[in-house]
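Researcher: Quick sanity check before group meeting.
Model: Go ahead. Protein one:
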Amino acid sequence: MAGDRPERGSSVSTVLGRRLGGELLRMRETRGLRQTHAAEALTASVPKVAKMERGLVPMRDPDIRALCHLYGADDAATVERLLSLAKLDRERRKAKGWWNGYPALRDMVEYVALEDVASGVRTWQQAIVPGLLQTADYARALAMGNGKWDDPAEVEPFVESRVARQSRLAGEAPLQLRAVIHESALRQLVGGRSVMRAQLGHMLEQAERPNVRLQVLPSSAGANPGMNCAFTIVSLDLSGALDVVHMDTTSATVWLESQADATHHRSIFDRITRLGLAQRASADLIVSIRKEM
C-alpha cells in the first residue's frame, strides 16, 4: 500500500496502523471471509472493521488475538509480531515527540516519528547525503537550493530539526544505520567547498560509531539496481519482519508498507551494498575527495 499523505478526519491513518491493518486484511481475504465475519467475532460494527483495516484507529490486543484466531493465523510468532506492531502504533499515536514542535518538517513528521522508535535504518542515496549524517550548514544549503520553502524563516527550524534527529545515533540503544551513498553526491558542491569539506569530515566522524556503517558506491561501478530511485528502509525490529520503505519524490512522500515491498527493497539494497566499496575503502575515498576541496 502506498500513499502520499495519511487520511485525515476524525481518525488518522498512520504508517504502522496501515501496515497492521493491511496484514489483517490480507489474512481475512486469504480465508475467504468478509468484514461482517470479522465484525461478528469482535462484536463490533462493519465500519469499525473497515477503519481498522485502513489503519485509521488504534487496535486493542484482544481484537488482534480474536482476528488471528478467526483467520487461522494464531501461531505464537504471528500473534506476537502483530501485537508488537499494534503496541508501537498506539505509542506513536499518543507520543508528544520533539518533532511536533517543528511545523517546518511538514510531510517528514510521520517519518521522523517512525525513525524515533525504529531499531535500524538502511538508506540508499544517489544525490544527497542522508539526513542523519548532514551538518547544519549542508542541510541549510540544501533547503535553500531546492526552492521548497515559501518562507525563508522556516529554513532554520528545518535545519534544527534535521540536526535533532541525529541524537538517535547516540545513547543507550542507538539506531543502527547502514548508508550507501553514490560518489556523485559527495562531489556535489552543496553550499560550496568549505561546507562540503566540513560535511565530508562529519561523515568520517560519524562512520567511527559502532552502530554506523557507511559505504560509497563509486562512479566506476557503472549501472546499479538503485539508479531509478533513492529509498530508505525503516526497521522496527532486527529480524526484518516489521520493515517499511520510505521514498521522497518531487511532489509526494511515498510509503511502501507490504512485506513484499520490504523484501524487494532489502534485496535491492543488498545488491547495491555488494557493489559498493568496503567501509575502509569508502572512508579513504571520502578523505581523497575532501582533500580535493
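Researcher: Fine. The other one?
Model: Protein two, sequence then structure:
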Amino acid sequence: MPEESMNTDRVGSVSSSRYEQIVAELREIVENQTRGQFTIGDYALEIEPMREVGGQERGDELFTVKESLFRLAEDIGLSYSSVKETRWTASRWPRERRQSGVSFTVHKILAVIADERERFAAILTPPEGEARWTADGARRRVGRQVDRPVTPQEKVSAIHTLARDEDVAAVVTTDFLRRPTVVAQVKREDKVRVVEELTRDDHVAAEVTTGLLRRPDVAFRAMRDDTARHQVNHAQVERGRQAREHFEETNPVAPAVRRIERSVEFLDLVTACHAFVAAAGRVVPGMRDRQLGDDERTIVHENVARVRATLDWIETAVDTGRVDVDGELARLLQGE
C-alpha cells in the first residue's frame, strides 16, 4: 500500500484508533480539572462571597477581598488572577447548572452572558452542526475573537489584532498592496483614501505626483480638472518667478540680461498679437454663410470677452508699466 494511503488513517504520528483512545482519556482528565476548578471557585466564594450591585461586584477592588483571595492563592500555589477568575466563574454557574462534559474554559467564556436564562439555555445548545461545545464555539457565541478563524470576518478580526502594533501594520499593509489581486478588490473610494493618507507628507506627495503625471493617461485626466490645471499653471509661473528672483539676486550679469529681456518681451508681445490677427484672418472668412448654434455663439462671445479684457490689459501694461491683474480680469483669464 502506498505511504500516502497509509497516512490518511492517522492523526499526527498516531493512528486514528490510538487518537480516539487518547481523546477519551483526556476528556476524563479535563472533566476532573473542570470539577477541580469549580471546587477552587466555590471555596473562594465561601471565603469571599460576591458583592454585586447592578451587575458589578462592588467589593472586588476592596482591600479586604483582594487580600483574602491573594492569601488563598499563595497558600494553594496558584496566582491571584487565577483564583479570582475561578471564583467569578463559579458565581455565574450554580452547581445544578454546570454541565458535565463541558470544560471549565467553555463555562468561563459563556459566563459573560448577562441574562441568566439565556446563559443557562446556551450551554445546553452547542453550535449548529457540532456535537459538543468547543472554546472557539463559545467565543463565537459571545462575540469574541476565536483562536482558529474560519469566516472572512474572523480572519479580518485576527489580522487587526495582530496588526495593532503600528510597525507590524505598516509591514502588513505594504505586503498587501503589492498583491494585484488584493488591490483589485479594494473599492475606488477606499483606494483614494489610502493614497491620501500615504501622501500626507508633502515630500512623498510631490514624488508620487511627479511619477503619476509622467503617465500620459493620468496626466490627461488630471488636467481635465480645472482646479488641478490652474494649480499646475500657478506652480509653473511661481517656479519661474522664484528662478528669476534667484538669478537676479545672485548673478552678476543680471542687469544686462534685464535690458535684453525688455527687448525680448517686446518682441514676444508683438509676435503674440500678430499670431492672433493672422489666426483670426484665416478662421473668420471660413464662417461665411454658417450659422452657429446658441451654445456655440455663447462660447465664442465668452472667449471674445476674454480677448478684449486681455487687449485692455496689454494696453495698460504698455502705457503705464503696470501688469497687476484685478479680480474680474483674473476670473476671465481663467475661464471662470
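Researcher: One line on it for the slide.
Model: The beta strands are 10-11, 14-15, 52-53, 56-57.
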